[in-house]
Structures are given as structure tokens and as C-alpha cells.
């Protein structure tokens, strides 16, 4: 019965957020953008609304959070009651506070990592496809060699060498992910560089950077955007896996992935608290993919 | 002589879906076909020719539906008949020959296996008989080595042979009706003759009725007993071939007939330093020489047409001039000065002087850029135009190619028709203010009326801007209308070159003669006469 009820509440919330967000975008958008938002599917507006909420929470973290990030404020595993609306964790830190700070750390790192991986991977991949010859050969074989090493072991290796700060974490995961993006971008671009319009642009005397940016990238966007949605979710997994092994985000910094693990014992007692950070990750993942799907649909010009 | 009626189509309506709405493609066409008769369907692309042809099999493509009218094939109502019965007819009593044989054959099966599939599935004959029958038909289609050719894969035979093998396959069950959908459009003129003759003979020998769909009037004149002209899904007129050719009644038909009459005014012999001279160029890929000792000049304000069959090295010549392929020997001079052999070594101004227009405007225009940027980029890059001046230049160029600037400037290529896209290709070349424009088969993917528009536009631009054109084509009708000088190529060598008038009236070389005589003419007896003259056929 509860499951049924929460399902209805969830759906109602989805529609409420989706419809109201779409209405809001439509009124706020500048005139020439209005048609874009008018045709936006409900899923996309819901996704954007959720992402905006996450961004707000990350930016305003210290203001919203009722307590300090690593502050021990009460007994372990307190139930949901004021002032600890979502209870406390196994060290007695406020769960709500940790969730808010976790948004900052986890989402920030995941976005930074994915974007970095995509910029590096796709530019290099397209460049390799465009230039061809030995540049392409050497880069591709190098990437193949990197991809032959299991991702987790490779990141562990790099983190052990370069130490574990947030910055190295971002760089290492981005480096590992960029190899996958490189392969995708290269194979997509190989189909594009043989087109006559690329030949025309080359004959015009355009430099490689302009060819990559204006001639190839817009035509390679659709598969890259789709891959972005997927990669973004994998980065969460990578961060939590590394945190679990003690090489990711260091305690007491809040991180959703580690929060699930730390409080996992509570599940045995029928308490849903440890699932909250997991739910936060899931919701963001769904939201990002909704928006990605919409963009993909627009970019590829697909019609139902 | 009253012949038995085979196919009757009455008030046929076919609709196609775009988005949620249905648009009419064929708007109430009537058609009657007698046994053993060949009906030619002509019209521009989008006229509904192919759709009508497929409807004669009781078939509508994906996204299309037959919404009205009746199709009666030898007493069977194809609209009401159950799908199983229609499937039984297709391939057995009604066969279809598609435009691109290369795309229609399954590349991973041998020709003879694909031939035998129809007769065996329809239970007409067992596999053994089908195989010997295939050899017999291959022989009748005058394919080389009829005993062996069936055991090859589609990529191992040439395009013309493939098209003949496909016609043989259509004949496998001795159907009552064959639908030919532009079977020779993708072929060279010299190959086209062989295919046309083979198709016509086999249709006559077996007394098969045929619907012959094409946009080429001269071809249909050879093949059809009657011609039906279509325009945007409506019938314009129908008459037997001779009276239709002699006296078309409707204005639209007359305009179709008149298309080939465009001819550029004769120009005096050009003098002075040529814009581009190709000097003894030998070039190739890998160890193979594709071009052998090529030389010719292109003067300002003149059009040099480079003609030849596919594989004769026409496009490779263009690649040498543009610098995409470095010659092994010889050089390309521009205004008397040698050009660096690779485009990478050329200066921006040298690049600007030589622009190119491509055959397929679809792949030559970046689909993700607006016309503003497509046309504006060369102007911005070479001439340093910015802001208002650039905008004004783009608008000028759009006006020059007869497109309304306000309406089109912010469109994407996908929002244009084929002819309009080709015009954008022209505008992009003009934006660089070049001396030479290389046109690589620019009209071959277009309808004849649209072709004529493009040719007239090119001619006007040439006169106004004193441009030099190098016009690569396999279509001699185009050469006749636009060229000043002609260079005939075969197997990578220049066979003959000279002023158009001289070359067309008195060709010196046998190959030039063969090429010129292979161009279909509007005379229905042309093919007979030609074959008789060549002694291939009694």
C-alpha cells in the first residue's frame, strides 16, 4: 500500500515539477528561444528543474545546511526528528547537512571530471581522425594501451603516484574516461572527415582548430551528447569506488557514494536513511539523462 | 489492333505522411496497359513516378498509403487482394527493376543464387532448371561469359552488367509486367546503349508489358510505345510516343521538350595567358597512373568541358588542379606561374583563385551551418569582410543566385531543395571571388528543368564576372549547351580536345565519335539506326 501511495505521489510530483518548470522557462526565456521551450517534453523540463535545484543547493550549501560539514551534533543513528530532520549518521553527524555538502563535492567533481574528459577526449579524437597518418596511429595505439589496463587499477596507480587531492582525483578520472571518449569521437569523426564539405573547407585553407570546432564537432554532437549522459553516471561510481578504497574523497568531506557505504548497516533495520544519498545520485542521473535525451532529439533532428 | 488489357488503374490516390499529416503524392491518376505494351512514365523528381510504378504492384512504400482508386491486374483487384496473394504475384507475374542495381543486389550472395530465389520460391521451376535458365537469359542480355558470370558476387561485375543481370533476374519467372525504375540513369552513355538495347530486345522477345520510369525523354523515346507525362502527382498528358514527340499538347510537356534547347552563345577564340594551364600532368594513386600526360588550358570567360566515362580520370584532374593530389610529373600553371603541387603549400590568394562546386550538394554543404556562415565564411576569410559589409556581401550573393536574402539567409541546407542547395554551392564558390571555378558534375543529380536553371545561372555569372569554368561531366547534352571547348578523356588520357563546334561536327577520334553517337536523341528510331550503323544488331 505504501509503495503504491509513494508511486502516486512520485508521479504527481514529477508532473507538477515538469509542468510548472516548463511554464516558468517559457515566460523567462528570451523571445527567440521561446519556441524551443514550448516544444520541450515534460521529462526535459523536469530534468532541468532538478538540475537547477542541485546547482542551487551546491552553490548555497553552507547557507542552507543547518550544521557544519564534519560537525558531530548528537548520538549515532538518531531517528528522523527535529532538529535532525533526516537523523544522524554513524558518527552522529547531521544527515541533511551531509547531503547538502555532498551535493557540492560529488556533483561538482562529477561534472568537472566529465566535462574535462569530453573536452580532451573529443578534441583529440577528432584531431586524430582529421590529421590521420602517424599522428592518428600513435595516439590511437597509445589510447588502446591505456584502455587495456583495467580502469580502477589504473586510477589507483595514478592516485598513488600523484597523491590524493580533489584536483588529482578529477584529473585522473578524467584521463581514464577521456580514452573512451577519444575512441568514440574518433570513429564518429572518421565518417565526417571524408565528406565533401570538409574537403571544401580544407581547400579554402581553414586551419585544423576551425575544422574541428565549426565543421566537424557540430555534426558529431549527437553521439557525444548521448555518451555524456552515460559517462556522467559512471563517474559517480568511480568516485565512490575510489573513496571506498580510501583514495577518493577523504573523510570528513561529505560524499554521497561513501555516505551510502558508511550507513549501510541501517538497512538491516528497515531504515531508508542510507538510501537517501543513493536516491540523490539516482535522481540526478535520471534528470541529466532526460535533458540529454531531449538535446539528442533536437540535435539529430529525429521525428517521432 | 485491339490488344488484351493487362493493367487498369483508375483514379489512384496515394498519400505520404510527413509528421502527423498526410499529403497527396499521386492525385487520381488513370492508367491502362495492354499486354506486351511498354508505357513510359516521365516527370521531374517528386512527380510521383516511382510511387505510381510501385502501386502497379499493389505496393506502397513505408510512410505512404494508397487512399483511393482501383488497381486491377489481369482481373485481380490488387487493393482488395490479401497480402499473400499479392506476394504470390510479385516476382512471378509482376517484376521490378530498381534504379541502382548495385544497391539492390545483396552484396553477399552470388548473382545466380539471387536469380534462382524467385523461380524456386514461387515454385515455377526447380533450382537446376533455374540455373540453366539463368545462363540462357544472361546470354540473351548479352552479358559476357554467361556461363560464369552468375557465379560472381555483385561487386565483381560492372554497373552496366549488374543492371542487365537484374533485368535477367526480373525475367526469371517470365512475368506479364515489369516495372523499370530509372534503370539506366546511373550509367555512362556508352554503357546505357547496351543496357537499353538488351532491355528492349528481351521485352519484345517475351512479349512482356513494361512500365518504364525515367526523367530522360530521349531514353523513353527509344523504349516506350506510349508516354505518360506526370507533374506533381497529376497526369499532364498521354499519347503514343511518336505523336507525343512530334506534337506535345500541354505547355508543361513543351517546356520539358524545350529544356535541351538552351545553348550558350558562341564565343570568339580566347587569347592571352590562360587562367590555368595543365602541363603534361601524370598523376595517380599508389603505383597506378590514373592520369597520363594531360595538357589543356582554361581561359578567362571560357568554359572547358572535360567529358568521359566514369573512371576516365576527370575528377582526378580536378584534384590535381586544386592541389589535393600531387602530380608525379608535369605542373599546373595559374596565370603563367607554376602553382605549388599541394594545396597546403599554396598561399591563401592562390587558394582563393580556384574554387570548386561539387556534384552532391548534400555532402558538400555542412548540414549544421546556416547559409549565412556557409556563404559568408570564404568572404570573411579571403576578403576580410566583417559585420555589416559581410552581411551585405552575403545578401548580394544570395540575390546573385536568385534566392531571396531575407527568406533564406538563416536557413540550414536541409531546408532547401536540391536545386537551391546547388545554388548555395555556387554562391560559396563565388564568395571567394575566384578566377576559376571547377564544376564537378554539378547538374547530374538534378532534374532537367532544374539543371537548365543552374546552367543558365552559371552562364550568366560567367558573362558578368568573366569567370573561367572547368566543367566536368559525363552528360554530353550539358556539354553542348554550356561548353566553349571540350576535352575528351578516356582511361586517364586526353583523346581529343578542341572548340565545341569543331569537335561535335567533325570528331577526329573513334572514341569521341562513339561517345557522341551514344547520346540518346529524341527520335524514336535513333536506337535502331545507331545499332544498325554499329552493326551490332540486324
Q: Which radius of gyration of chain B do the C-alpha atoms yield? A: 25 Å
The whole-angstrom Rg of chain A is: 22 Å
Low-pLDDT segments, ≥5 res of chain A: none
In which range does the helix fraction of chain A lie?
Answer: over 70%
Q: Any idea what the CATH superfamily of the domain at 103-300 in chain A is called?
A: MetI-like
SS elements, strand count of chain B: 20
Please describe the biggest sheet of chain B, giving its number of strands, its sense, and whether it closes into a barrel: 6 strands, mixed
CATH topology of the largest domain in chain B: Rossmann fold
Query: Strands of the biggest beta sheet of chain B: in what spatial order?
Result: 6-7-8-3-9-10
Globally, the shape of chain A reads globular
How many structural domains in the coordinates of chain B?
2
Keywords:
A: 304 residues; mainly alpha; MetI-like fold; B: 538 residues; alpha/beta; Rossmann fold; 2 domains; 6-stranded mixed beta sheet; 23 helices; 39% helix; Oligopep_ABC_C (chain B); ATP-binding (chain B); cell membrane (chain B); AAA+_ATPase (chain B); Peptide/nickel transport system ATP-binding protein (chain B)
Summarize the structure in words.
Chain A: It comes from Sulfitobacter brevis. Chain A: Belongs to the binding-protein-dependent transport system permease family. Chain A: Keywords: Cell membrane, Membrane, Transmembrane, Transmembrane helix, Transport. Chain A: It is found in: Cell membrane. Chain A has a domain of 198 residues: Orthogonal Bundle (MetI-like fold), CATH 1.10.3720. With 304 residues, chain A is mostly helical. Helix content of chain A is 74%, strand content 0%. With 538 residues, chain B is an alpha/beta fold. Chain B has 23 helices and 20 strands. In chain B, strand 19 and strand 20 form a beta hairpin. Chains A and B meet through helix 9 and helix 10 of A and helix 15 of B.
Amino acid at each position: 500500500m505504501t509503495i503504491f501511495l509513494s508511486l502516486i505521489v512520485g508521479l504527481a510530483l514529477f508532473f507538477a515539477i515538469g509542468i510548472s518548470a516548463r511554464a516558468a522557462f517559457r515566460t523567462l526565456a528570451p523571445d527567440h528561444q521561446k519556441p524551443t521551450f514550448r516544444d520541450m517534453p515534460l521529462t526535459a523540463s523536469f530534468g532541468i528543474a532538478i538540475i537547477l535545484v542541485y546547482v542551487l543547493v551546491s552553490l548555497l550549501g553552507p547557507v542552507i545546511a543547518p550544521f557544519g560539514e564534519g560537525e558531530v551534533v548528537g548520538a549515532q543513528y538518531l531517528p528522523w526528528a527535529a532538529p535532525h530532520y533526516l537523523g544522524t549518521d554513524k558518527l552522529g553527524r547531521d544527515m541533511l547537512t551531509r547531503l547538502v555538502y555532498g551535493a557540492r563535492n560529488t556533483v561538482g567533481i562529477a561534472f568537472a571530471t566529465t566535462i574535462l574528459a569530453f573536452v580532451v577526449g573529443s578534441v583529440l579524437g577528432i584531431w586524430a581522425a582529421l590529421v590521420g597518418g602517424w599522428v592518428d596511429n600513435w595516439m590511437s595505439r597509445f589510447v588502446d594501451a591505456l584502455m587495456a589496463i583495467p580502469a580502477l587499477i589504473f586510477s589507483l596507480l595514478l592516485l598513488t603516484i600523484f597523491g590524493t587531492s580533489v584536483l588529482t582525483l578529477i584529473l585522473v578520472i578524467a584521463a581514464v574516461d577521456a580514452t573512451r571518449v577519444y575512441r568514440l569521437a574518433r570513429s564518429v569523426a572518421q565518417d565526417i572527415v571524408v565528406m565533401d564539405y570538409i574537403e571544401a573547407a580544407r581547400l579554402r585553407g581553414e586551419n585544423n582548430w576551425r575544422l574541428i570546432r565549426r565543421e566537424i564537432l557540430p555534426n558529431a554532437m549527437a553521439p557525444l551528447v548521448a555518451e555524456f549522459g552515460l559517462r556522467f553516471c559512471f563517474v559517480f561510481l568511480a568516485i565512490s569506488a575510489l573513496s571506498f578504497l580510501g583514495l577518493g574523497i577523504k573523510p570528513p568531506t561529505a560524499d554521497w557514494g561513501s555516505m551510502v557505504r558508511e550507513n549501510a548497516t541501517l538497512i538491516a533495520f528497515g531504515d531508508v536513511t542510507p538510501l537517501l544519498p543513493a536516491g540523490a545520485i539516482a535522481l540526478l542521473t535520471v534528470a541529466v539523462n532526460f535533458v540529454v535525451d531531449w538535446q539528442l532529439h533536437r540535435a539529430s533532428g529525429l521525428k517521432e | 489492333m485491339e490488344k488484351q488489357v493487362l493493367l487498369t488503374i483508375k483514379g489512384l490516390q496515394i498519400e505520404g505522411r510527413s509528421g502527423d499529416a498526410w499529403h497527396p503524392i499521386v492525385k487520381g491518376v488513370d492508367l491502362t496497359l495492354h499486354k506486351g505494351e511498354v508505357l513510359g512514365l516521365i516527370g521531374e523528381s517528386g512527380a510521383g513516378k516511382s510511387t505510381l510504378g510501385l502501386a502497379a504492384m499493389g505496393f506502397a512504400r513505408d510512410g505512404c498509403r494508397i487512399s483511393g482508386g482501383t488497381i486491377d491486374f489481369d482481373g485481380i483487384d490488387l487493393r482488395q487482394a490479401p497480402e499473400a496473394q499479392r506476394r504470390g504475384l510479385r516476382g512471378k507475374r509482376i517484376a521490378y527493376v530498381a534504379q541502382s542495381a548495385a544497391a539492390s543486389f545483396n552484396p553477399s550472395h552470388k548473382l545466380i543464387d539471387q536469380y534462382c530465389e524467385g523461380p524456386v520460391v514461387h515454385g515455377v521451376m526447380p533450382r537446376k532448371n533455374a540455373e540453366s535458365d539463368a545462363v540462357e537469359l544472361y546470354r540473351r542480355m548479352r552479358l559476357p561469359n554467361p556461363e560464369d558470370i552468375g557465379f560472381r558476387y555483385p561487386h565483381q561485375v560492372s554497373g552496366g552488367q549488374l543492371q542487365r543481370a537484374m533485368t535477367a533476374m526480373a525475367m526469371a519467372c517470365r512475368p506479364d509486367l515489369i516495372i523499370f525504375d530509372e534503370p539506366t540513369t546511373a550509367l555512362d552513355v556508352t554503357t546505357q546503349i547496351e543496357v537499353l538495347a538488351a532491355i528492349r530486345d528481351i521485352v519484345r522477345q517475351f512479349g512482356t508489358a513494361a512500365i518504364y520510369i525515367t526523367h530522360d525523354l530521349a531514353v523513353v523515346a527509344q523504349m516506350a510505345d506510349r508516354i505518360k507525362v506526370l507533374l506533381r502527382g497529376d497526369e499532364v498528358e498521354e499519347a503514343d510516343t511518336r505523336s507525343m514527340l512530334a506534337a506535345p499538347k500541354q505547355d508543361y510537356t513543351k517546356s520539358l521538350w524545350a529544356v535541351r534547347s538552351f545553348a550558350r552563345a558562341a564565343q570568339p577564340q580566347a587569347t592571352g595567358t590562360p587562367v590555368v594551364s595543365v602541363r603534361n600532368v601524370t598523376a595517380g594513386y599508389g603505383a597506378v597512373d590514373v592520369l597520363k600526360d594531360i595538357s589543356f588550358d582554361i581561359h578567362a570567360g571560357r568554359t572547358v568541358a572535360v567529358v568521359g566515362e566514369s573512371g576516365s580520370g576527370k575528377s582526378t584532374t580536378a584534384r590535381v588542379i586544386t592541389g589535393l593530389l600531387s602530380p608525379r610529373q608535369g605542373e599546373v600553371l595559374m596565370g603563367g606561374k607554376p602553382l605549388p603541387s599541394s594545396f597546403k603549400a599554396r598561399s591563401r590568394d592562390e587558394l582563393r583563385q580556384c574554387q570548386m562546386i561539387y556534384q552532391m550538394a548534400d555532402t558538400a554543404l555542412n548540414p549544421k551551418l546556416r547559409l549565412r556562415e556557409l556563404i559568408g565564411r570564404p568572404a570573411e576569410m579571403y576578403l576580410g569582410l566583417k559585420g555589416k559589409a559581410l552581411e551585405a556581401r552575403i545578401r548580394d550573393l544570395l540575390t546573385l543566385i536568385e534566392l531571396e536574402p531575407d527568406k533564406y539567409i538563416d536557413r540550414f541546407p536541409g531546408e532547401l531543395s536540391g536545386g537551391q542547395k546547388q545554388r548555395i554551392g555556387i554562391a560559396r564558390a563565388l564568395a571567394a571571388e575566384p578566377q576559376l571555378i571547377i564544376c564537378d558534375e554539378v547538374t547530374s543529380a538534378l532534374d532537367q528543368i532544374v539543371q537548365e536553371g543552374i546552367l543558365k545561372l552559371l552562364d550568366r555569372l560567367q558573362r558578368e564576372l568573366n569567370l573561367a569554368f572547368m566543367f566536368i561531366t559525363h552528360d554530353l547534352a550539358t556539354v553542348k549547351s554550356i561548353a566553349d571547348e571540350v576535352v575528351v578523356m578516356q582511361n586517364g588520357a586526353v583523346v581529343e580536345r578542341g572548340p565545341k563546334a569543331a569537335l561535335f561536327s567533325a570528331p577526329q577520334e573513334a572514341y569521341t565519335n562513339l561517345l557522341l553517337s551514344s547520346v540518346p536523341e529524341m527520335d524514336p528510331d535513333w536506337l535502331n539506326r545507331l545499332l544498325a550503323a554499329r552493326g551490332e544488331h540486324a
